[in-house]
Design a protein that fits this description.
The protein has 188 residues and is mainly beta. It is built from 2 helices and 12 strands; from the N terminus they run E-E-E-E-E-E-H-H-E-E-E-E-E-E. The protein has 2 domains: 8-86, no CATH class; 88-187, Lipocalin. Helices cover 6% and strands 39% of the residues.
C-alpha cells in the first residue's frame, strides 16, 4: 500500500515564501510548492533515474523514461505522439491522407499521377509519384475488375524511399449487377 508523506519545510520571505517558519514544519499541500530542479519517479522496487521530470534553461518542462530516453518537452507531448506538429501531420504517409485523390497539403508541388493501362476505361493501377521521373512512389491503387465493376481495390502507401510499403488496405467488393452492395476491408 502506498504511503502519503509530506516533506518538511523551512519557509521565509528571503527564499520566496510568504511566511517565516523558523522550525521545520509540514508542507501545506493547498499552499506550498516544492522548489526543485527535477524529480525522479520510482516504483515499488526501483531506486534509479529511469523516469525523470525536469526543466531546461528556457523554462520548458521535460520528460523522459525507460522507453523514451531522449527528453520531450510538454509542448512536444501535447502536439501528439513523438512531438507531431500540425505541419508534420500534413506530410504523414498514412493512407487516410491519400484516399481518394493523392497527395495534397504538406507535400511539394509537382507530384505525378499515372493511370495504367493508358487509355483503358478499366484501369488496373493508379500510382502517385513524387515527380515526373517516377523514381519514388507515394501511393498506389491496384484495381481488379469483373466486367464493368471492380471486385477488389488495394491501396499501398510508400515510405519516403519510394519502394518500401508502409501500409496496405484491401477492399473486397461484392456487387449486384453494376451496383456495389458491400465491401470487406483488410488492413495490413
Amino acid at each position: 500500500m502506498a504511503d502519503r508523506v509530506k516533506p518538511l519545510k523551512f519557509e521565509s520571505p528571503d527564499s520566496g515564501g510568504t511566511e517565516l517558519d523558523e522550525f521545520q514544519t509540514s508542507l501545506d499541500p493547498s499552499e506550498d510548492h516544492l522548489d526543485a530542479r527535477g524529480v525522479f519517479i520510482q516504483n515499488d522496487t526501483s531506486d534509479d533515474e529511469a523516469v525523470h521530470v525536469t526543466r531546461d534553461a528556457g523554462g520548458n518542462m521535460q520528460f523522459k523514461d525507460a522507453q523514451n530516453t531522449t527528453y520531450k518537452t510538454l509542448t512536444e507531448l501535447l502536439a501528439g505522439s513523438g512531438g507531431l506538429t500540425e505541419s508534420a501531420h500534413r506530410t504523414l504517409r498514412q493512407l487516410i491522407h491519400f484516399i481518394d485523390d493523392g497527395p495534397a497539403e504538406g507535400f511539394v508541388s509537382g507530384a505525378y499521377r499515372e493511370v495504367l493501362p493508358a487509355g483503358d476505361p478499366f484501369p488496373t493501377s493508379i500510382i502517385w509519384y513524387e515527380d515526373g521521373t517516377k523514381a519514388k512512389k507515394i501511393v498506389e491503387l491496384a484495381l481488379t475488375w469483373s466486367g464493368p465493376v471492380t471486385t477488389q481495390e488495394v491501396w499501398r502507401v510508400y515510405d519516403t524511399d519510394g519502394s518500401t510499403v508502409l501500409a496496405t488496405v484491401t477492399d473486397t467488393i461484392t456487387n449486384s449487377g453494376i451496383f456495389e452492395t458491400s465491401r470487406t476491408r483488410a488492413i495490413a
